[in-house]
User: What shape does this take?
Amino acid sequence: MSGYDSDSWGPATLGVRAGHARGGEQEHAEAIYATSSFVFSSAAEAAARFAEREPGNIYSRFTNPTVRTFEQRLAAMEGGECSVATASGMSAILSTIMALLDGGDHIIASESLFGSTVSLLVNHMSRFGIETTFVGLSDYEAWQAAVRPNTRMLLLETPSNPLMELADIPRMAEIARAAGALLVVDNCFCTPVLQRPLDLGADLVVHSATKYLDGQGRCVGGAVVGDGERVGRRVHGFLRNAGPSMSPFNAWVFLKGLETLGVRMRGHCEAAGRLAEWLAGHPAVAWVYYPGLPDHPQHELARRQQSGFGGIVSFDVAGGREAAWEVVDRTQLLSITANLGDTRSTITHPATTTHGRNTEAQRRAAGIGEGLLRVSVGLEDVADIQADLDRGLSSLAIR
Assistant: This one.
C-alpha cells in the first residue's frame, strides 16, 4: 500500500495492513517473491545498489520484498523505526550481539533466559571475549551491582520462560542508560499486542517469530526491532555478510500470522487465565506461575506494563520428575512438544527439555525444579484442556 498514514492505526490494523506495497498486479494479499536474485536496468544501477548509494533489491539473502513487508509490519506494531528478519529467534539474538558488541565487552543477562540463550552466551560468546554475568530477573540491585565499565548490554525476557517472572522495563531502562548500555528485551511471550518494550524504554526488541507471531507451529524465524542505525545498518549489515536470513516463504507465513495476532492473543489470555484459576484450586498442584493470578508477586506490575497476562501457565506438582512425567504421559489432547504459542495446547517438562542442557546450578538459579510443567494454552475449549490435564493430576492427588 502507498499513500496511507499508519501513525493513527491501532495494533490490529497494523497487523493486517502495515508494510504492504502492492505491485503492478494490484494483488490484495502479499505476494511471495520466490527468487534468489533481482535484475537491474543498467550496469550503473547495479553498481549503485551494491555500493549502497541507492536502495533496491539485490539478492534475497538480505533484500527480498516479502521479507521486507514482514519487517516493516512488525516494526510498525512494535513502534520501532525498522526491523531485521532472521532465520530463527536464536539467530536474532546472535545477530544482535555480533553486530553491536566487541571482544572485551560485558553483558548482564537474566538468570531466567531461555536455555539455548544461556548456552549461546556461556559456551560460544565467551570464546569471542564477550563475558556474561547472570542475575535474578527482578533483582534490580543485583543488575546495578553487576555493572562494569565495559558493560554494553542488558539482556532479558519478560515474562520469563517458564516461570512467568516479570522485569520492570522502565526501571531496567534507567539502569541501562546510567551504565551507557543497551537494553535488549525478548518480547516473545507477550508480542506487541500485549507489550511494547520500546515504548517503555528498551533500545531493542527481539522475537522468535516461530512462536505467537506465526501462531500455528508452521515455520521457524526471528526478528530484531529498533532504530535505523543499530538495527537498520549494523544488524542488517551482519545479516548481509553472515547470512542467517529468513526465507520469503516463511516471511509470508508470518505475515499471515500477524493478521490474526490480536484476536489470537486475546483468546490465549482468556483461556490461560481460566486454566490458571482451575490449576490453583487443584489438590495435586503445589503452585501456579501466572501473572494474571492475584497472588502472583508481580501481578500489579503485569497489570501496569502489559495489556494482557499471556498464554503460558506453568505449575509445580509434588513428587518431582516422576510425578511431572506422569502428568505429561497421561495427556491425550495436549501435544508433548517444547514449542509454544500455537493454536494447539502444548505441554513440556522444562528441566529435561528447554533447560535440559543447562547445568543443575543454572536451573536451580532460574527456579526450575523437577516438578515443574509448562503449558502453552491453545485455542481449544478450556474444559477439554482441563480434563486432559486432570487425568494425570487426579492420579497424583489420590496417592
